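Quarterly update from the structural biology core.
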Amino acid sequence: MQKRQERQHTETASCLEEDVVVVPEVSEEVEVEELKQASISVEVQTVECGPRNTQTVNSSCDPMTNKDPLLNIEQFKNNPSIIHDYTGLKNYSRFCMVLNTLGPAAYQLSYMYGHPPSSISVENQFFLVLIKLRKHHTNFELSTLFSISESQCYNIFFTWVRFMSLQWKRLPIWCSRDLVQFYSPLGFSAEYPTTRVIVDGTECPVQKPSFPTAQQSTFSTYKNRNTVKTLVGISPGGVTSFVSECYGGSTSDRQIVERSTLPSMCDPGDSVMSDKGFDVQDIFAPYGVKVNIPTFFKKRNRMDGEMVVRDRKIASKRVHVERIIGYAKTYKVLTQPLNSSETLLSSDIVFVCFMLCNFRAGVVPRHA
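Predicted structure, tokenized:
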């Protein structure tokens, strides 16, 4: 009995040893193979897919890799509404025509602070300047939209504004008497046939200067703020024919007329139409020029019928210069305060904005 029990115990132990030895050897080989295959597949995925995903994220999220400008005039060739909104011009063909009026010198400019980058073409430089005048964006905004630095944006704007002013001042915008009469509306030809120009003053806000003397000279009691003032003249047909230099807001309209060349530009027998604030008959009289202005009340308590009718006729004709001024002030650079550097070029900026209005459709109808 004891020998039988020992034999059974030995067989059971041998069976257990076989189970312990054989089964783990097979399972370890399987597990090792599976681990090797899994590690190889992970390495393949890491090598093949990792860098590809990283490049995609970097190219889409890093703004420095994208050197193409966000704005380009060629993008809007077939979209006149966007061109009009950005520049005030009718369409792309009108944009090109205005650029061509500046001549080939526009492609050979000597810039004020070094040459701009070659990445921005001449057409896009002109586009940038018009957007600056129309929208009065900051240099930071424009530099972001055109992918250039702020200093380069500043350089382009001030160089082009000065250049445009000098080029367009060479044009004979002062119309001859025969040309004015030929394009004069029927109302002017019948009632005021000798009218050569309609004049009015306008003011543009500027930032408060730091020097007390400059603050005093630019403060306008009419606007109750610091401004620059200019005198604008249009022909009866609605063409801007005269823009004076800009003066401080404290300068009166009479002083601007005295310092301008407007009286000497008129011929004897001509007449000038203006608001009653222009009491300048004595300045134009030596040149044989008459000034048509509404009647001053002075000490009168009432006006007779003839005076009322006359003043209404003058007001209905003189209003066209205010419409031109309103067109010019769609360029927001004239309605928002100019900084110190822009104030130095205020005469050029104002002249360029009014000249751009001459490239738009006429505001005075033929029957006016």
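The two ends are 140 Å apart (CA to CA).
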